């Protein structure tokens, strides 16, 4: 049942390939968190196909919302606002969630709150937890984004650095494709790397200018590709390689995975070290699918302990795309009576200061 005095908000998320709905009370108490993944639909393409994603959202959105209300034991007429991730993302996918949210807000006569998906990832570690001290550093590591923020307060974020090419999750997925681990690759590579020797290969950590807080992962991806498959003959899609990962032993495959991870995570922690020297923060907020990664979580815990930071690593169910983070962040907007109207649009771009959606795990071969 909804608690009196604190907003009971239904959150909706459909920016990429997860159809999600959640009911959150008072910004932090998650009553339900329903996520319908589409992995089985995109697996054979090794990436998200936008047309397939939006059609699947259409089929799933109503049952997912109904299930979130049922699990929360909240009736429609108890909802005080509808929040929706309306940017950035795949337009066709976003439109499904935005349309559902508008229809609900209009018919229930409650406020509509449009939330930025990347901004919401930074809020995921605040669910089911007391508020941390600010300012904070915020790191979003997902399939579409790798961004570092200075978080003045939960509603005021300033972009410090972003990837200039691939996102770290995208690099994980592509590395997993090169190693023939299947889709989605991140979790599979994570598990395999734990059996490998991370010093078996010395993969590059992109060297950007000293002061730079941007990231780059495409060089790492290419270094792994060449190490596994040999030198390419020809260019682009016509390139042919000397071999593929099927000739690797299980041991060699695990070694490649471990060495890839060491370089990918070193790139993330290097920029955190650069940022902490410049900004006297008290908290480290982390979010996005890659924050589920075992080694990254351990490295971030070390980093936070070293710098006496309040580390907010989301529970694993809130690392990946979910609607609880959308409804949670929306509660802060609700308290300021900062609402949207029915003209709210879906956008592939993020708010000023946040980077645009580069891609959402495009198919890769
Ligand atoms: O945040 P998210 O669900 O979607 C986007 O907003 O992009 O992140 C998905 C990404 C995928 O690239 C996936 O492979 C990666 O997060 N991922 C992981 C792990 N779990 C998910 N990467 C590394 N290790 C993991 N355990
Ligand atoms: Zn995401």
Structure notes:
By secondary structure, the protein is α/β, with parallel strands linked by helices. The protein has 2 domains: 8-126 and 318-358, 2-Layer Sandwich (Nucleotidyltransferase, domain 5); 136-314, ATPase, nucleotide binding domain (Nucleotidyltransferase, domain 5). The protein has 11 helices and 10 strands. It has helices spanning 39-42, 50-72, 91-108, 117-123, 168-178, 185-193, 218-229, 250-278, 294-306, 316-319, 324-335; strands at 8-13, 18-25, 29-37, 81-87, 112-116, 136-141, 146-153, 156-162, 283-287, 310-312. Strands 3-2-1-4-5 form a 5-stranded mixed sheet, with helices on both faces. A hairpin with a 4-residue loop joins β1 and β2 (18-25). α4 packs across α11 and α8 runs parallel beside α9 (294-306). 51% of the residues are buried. Bound molecules: 5'-O-[(R)-(carboxyoxy)(hydroxy)phosphoryl]adenosine (KG4) and zinc ion. Zinc ion (ZN) is lined by residues 117, 121, 142, 288, 321.
Please give the structural blueprint:
Blueprint: E1 8-13, E2 18-25, E3 29-37, H1 39-42, H2 50-72, E4 81-87, H3 91-108, E5 112-116, H4 117-123, E6 136-141, E7 146-153, E8 156-162, H5 168-178, H6 185-193, H7 218-229, H8 250-278, E9 283-287, H9 294-306, E10 310-312, H10 316-319, H11 324-335
Parallel strand pairs: 1-4, 4-5, 6-9, 9-10
Antiparallel strand pairs: 1-2, 2-3, 6-7, 7-8
5'-O-[(R)-(carboxyoxy)(hydroxy)phosphoryl]adenosine binds at residues 16, 142-144, 169-170, 172-173, 184-187, 190, 288-290, 292-293, 320-321, 361.
């Amino acid at each position: 049942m909804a608690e009196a005095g604190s907003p009971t908000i239904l959150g909706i998320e459909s920016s990429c390939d997860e159809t999600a709905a959640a009911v959150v009370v008072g910004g932090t108490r998650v009553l339900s968190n329903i996520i319908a993944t589409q992995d089985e639909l995109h697996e054979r393409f090794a990436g998200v196909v936008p047309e397939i994603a939006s059609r699947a959202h259409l089929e799933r959105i109503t049952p997912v919302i109904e299930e979130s209300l049922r699990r929360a034991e909240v009736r429609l007429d108890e909802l005080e606002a509808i929040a929706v991730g309306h940017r950035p993302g795949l337009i066709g996918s976003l439109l499904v969630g935005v349309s559902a949210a508008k229809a609900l807000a209009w018919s229930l006569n409650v406020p509509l709150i449009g939330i930025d998906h990347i901004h919401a990832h930074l809020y995921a570690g605040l669910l089911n937890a007391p508020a941390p001290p600010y300012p904070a550093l915020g790191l979003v590591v997902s399939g579409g984004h790798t961004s570092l923020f200075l978080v003045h307060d939960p509603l005021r974020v300033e972009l410090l650095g972003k990837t200039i090419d691939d996102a770290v999750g995208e690099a994980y997925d592509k590395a997993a494709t090169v190693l023939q681990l299947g889709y989605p690759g991140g979790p599979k590579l994570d598990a395999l790397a734990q059996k490998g020797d991370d010093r078996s290969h010395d993969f590059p950590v992109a060297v950007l200018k000293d002061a730079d807080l941007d990231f780059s992962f495409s060089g790492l991806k290419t270094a792994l590709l060449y190490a596994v498959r040999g030198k390419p003959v020809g260019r682009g899609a016509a390139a042919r390689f000397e071999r593929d990962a099927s000739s690797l032993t299980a041991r060699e495959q695990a070694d490649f995975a471990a060495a890839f991870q060491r370089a990918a995570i070193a790139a993330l922690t290097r920029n955190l070290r650069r940022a902490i020297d410049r900004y006297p923060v008290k908290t480290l907020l982390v979010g996005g699918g890659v924050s589920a990664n075992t080694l990254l979580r351990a490295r971030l815990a070390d980093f936070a302990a070293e710098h006496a930071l309040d580390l907010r690593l989301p529970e694993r169910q809130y690392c990946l795309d979910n609607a609880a983070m959308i409804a949670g962040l929306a509660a802060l907007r609700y308290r300021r009576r900062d609402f949207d109207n029915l003209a709210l649009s879906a956008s592939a771009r993020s708010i000023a200061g946040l980077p645009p959606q580069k891609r959402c795990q495009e198919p890769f071969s």
